[in-house]
Amino acid sequence: MAYSYSRGYYKDTRGDEVATAVLEAYAKGIEFDALLTKNKQVRTYWNQIQSEKIRAEQMREKERQRQAKLAERRAIEQAQKEEVMAKLSKEELEAFGLINKKRASKR
Of 9, 16, 18, 76, which has the maximum CB count within 10 A? Predict the structure, then answer.
């Protein structure tokens, strides 16, 4: 893996080298599959990119599942709360603090 330090900043130049190798191969008429088999650096870079895409998709799917479970749990809790509130009278709900008590005006 090649690195360069320009203006004091760390810069990974491997992507530049891979892009150059790919463009040179295309200019010579070499197919992408042949390039992957011949050039280890391009193959490694390509596999890394593909694995990152798969990992990102897995993380998105995991987040979607987490959000779905959370929404389902909230819906169940809300249904349970509404069921309990339906069974109690208005005075009991006020006593337990589930609904606000009417405030007497200070006139």
Answer: 18
